[in-house]
């Protein structure tokens, strides 16, 4: 397949890319802004909005009583996620919206509300929520195989421990935004920065009490999503649509960065309690682990997120006896939601901590322990959820990276450097990744695409995926260009539109290219079949005599340009349009029994990171990272490498610098770039080598034998956390696992160093 640049790359760097806030505004456009709660838990006793309503430029105010239909945007139908709240469950929960002529007027007016609350006790910490018997927001999951409790009792060696893993803000460059334009009858057009247009359509229709066919949702591109726009965009679209229909005006809503961070969900933070039994060689015999998550005030997607954490607790390792349990706890914080990896990273970090514990207990290189526990064949290839790992390439991939990165010699050099007991200490770690690809909600594993060929040979492509900068549109267009053997510039990719492709799945779970690429290919196959039938009849040849070459169609001993042939087909009344469809085969999942094949295939990867820390301050830098990643037969190697680099750096930020902090009043205090530290360009590895496993090819029937690349690279950053851990462990001659929690901020690194010094001197 011919590789191509990202279709919007030049627009991104020149500023020509049009996002919702760049669109030409309709005449009479007005602006909405949210009024947010100022307590973490309680009830509204009295709400005086008179000053809001009388403020300059204000057209009107929306409250729960303004919602024509359902005042709920819960993606799971639990009726626990109101558009406008009466009972307050977190600081910053939307209570009302003000609509004014300008955004500045709406924003100011929202501050004028006078609200009297009855305050109730609140909890923001997951362990405190467990202690106070706060409820689960959704049903927990248990995965088990064998007899873990008994085997743990009999194991030659056993370690128990606990680990905290912090959350993460999505920090997309474009905040949430929606613009709604009222139409005749029940109709409304909604432009929404969303990863899930069909869900926005459904939520708006429910809020307006109209059928889905009255709501049209469009999105050309987002300025980043990372999962934060899978469900959280529902709120802003619903508010804009309600206001648009109520006031019969086009309405736009865009929160400030601070309010966006306060009022929208984040990555779940976890506390993982683990109990692992193993033998003298470091082979795991049994694992029992509990994964408690801060889910926030409502269910949102916490069920499937905490499920996926359990699915990835094993990472690349075989657990002969295993018992894994999720604990999705309610807290008085914003409801957490999807984030790149969708719980998988948290599960995987917990699994790697167990490997690290074993290595320090035995005085071995953690890589040796990893290799000893890799999934194998026949009797060592069953996951805790009873799926057979039959596409395992991790051992080959890790061996290649170990050699290409010169890991062993560099580790020896690190040990020698640390033996000098200097202020600067170094660490190095090689960690693997196995990530399952598919939605665990099986019905989401479907996609549609609409393809038109016009009489001049140009092609129109629309599909159900959304473009958030990841290059999905380019990949799907490449698939179509390859099917018809035409230049990519002959294909026009148009905005995702619920009027063109209905019932779309979220662009999530790394499945965008897999699903939408196959749907586009299916549409192309339908059209090609008609074209070949026409060519055979018109030119008296057999099917084998018809072939598509570069911008050419060969028919027997004749050749026509693609444009000429398409015009002939049109004149013969051949249908030049098709709706394609695809559903992922051979997947199934029974949550009640904890068994099935939830994933169509696995994507693999490995990374080696080397770090240096200052033992006096806790500050550190990543000196070098080497990555070897599996994308199967790459659809576009440049886009794939970009995803790997970006995913790694975002994962590094999650594990090192990005810290969420709530004060005693339940207020999120890390709610702006001034208080929340995402990685800078200077935080990237000083040496950064990224290679694709070019020998890999997906054994399943994916599009062109490729593999997903959106989420798996995120977890490659675990090597940074473990390298920091090794550097810290040198303070006590590697005798103890440092048990470094995440994010490993300089403060936390320093505190862990101090703890180890205390243990050494005790």
Structural account:
It is built from 19 helices and 29 strands. An eight-stranded mixed β-sheet has the order 3-5-1-12-9-10-11-20. It has a five-stranded mixed β-sheet with strand order 7-15-14-13-8, with helices on both faces. The protein is of the alpha+beta class. The chain is globular. The model has no long low-confidence stretch (mean pLDDT 97). The protein folds into three domains: 9-121 and 176-254, Aldehyde Oxidoreductase, domain 3 (Alpha-Beta Complex); 270-440 and 591-761, 2-Layer Sandwich (Aldehyde Oxidoreductase, domain 4), CATH 3.30.365.10; 446-583, Aldehyde oxidase/xanthine dehydrogenase, molybdopterin binding domain (Aldehyde Oxidoreductase, domain 4).
Blueprint of the fold:
Layout: H1 9-14, E1 30-36, E2 42-48, H2 50-53, E3 58-62, E4 87-88, E5 94-100, H3 103-109, E6 114-119, H4 126-131, E7 142-145, H5 148-154, E8 157-165, E9 178-182, E10 188-192, H6 197-208, E11 215-219, H7 233-247, E12 251-253, H8 257-263, E13 270-278, E14 284-296, H9 302-311, E15 321-330, H10 344-362, H11 366-373, H12 394-404, H13 407-418, E16 424-437, E17 446-453, E18 459-463, H14 472-484, E19 491-493, E20 496-497, H15 512-539, E21 546-549, E22 552-555, E23 558-561, H16 562-571, E24 577-583, E25 588-590, E26 595-597, E27 601-614, E28 620-629, H17 637-656, E29 687-692, H18 718-729, H19 746-761
Parallel strand pairs: 1-12, 10-11, 14-15, 18-19, 28-29
Antiparallel strand pairs: 1-5, 2-4, 2-6, 3-5, 7-15, 8-13, 9-10, 9-12, 11-20, 13-14, 16-27, 17-18, 17-24, 21-22, 22-23, 25-26, 27-28
Helix pairs in contact: 6-7, 9-10, 10-11, 14-15
